[in-house]
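Sequence in, structure out. Go.
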Amino acid sequence: MFDDSDMKIVGAVGKAPAQATETADFLAESGRQHFNGNFAKAKALGANIVSAFSYQAAPEELDAMVRERGLQPEGVLLQQMKFLSVFSAEYCLNRYLPSPMLASVAVGEMYDVLQQVSPALYDALSHAAAFSFYYMSVKNAAAGGIGAQFAELCDMPDDPRVADLGDALHKLNCSVYKRAIRGFVFV
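Output:
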């Protein structure tokens, strides 16, 4: 009824589809990272980093940072400090590890361990939109940056002390996490 003799099949015969090539590259990279020890290092890093934000009360250094600004490390402020610390960890792992695969392994392990040691924080994070605001702030260089987003999430958008705390906390976190990443000596 219909003549389809002029129909052509798209794609060159004998060429491997892009997906097959990507899969082969992924498997090769996975093997390299496993055998050179980077995969195990990424898992250990992700697990160890959780101690930086799984506290019940703010550690002395953070407590002093908050009190210097005339604030109290409790309630919403304490919760948002933890959220920002987790964001900073994820941000640094994605930015400073030598490959996206290793970053994915470290971030995955970080969340697995966080879920085990602090299920309430993990649950609260899974229902929060904080990371979206922080990533937009970093990506678009939003006015006020991380600190302004932190103050907004703390329901204190007009308090410069809270914005300053958010900026200082993110900088401190990134410094600590970058040092931790360098300490694992990825190859």
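Check: The CA atoms of residues 87 and 168 lie 14 Å apart. The chain has a mean pLDDT of 88.
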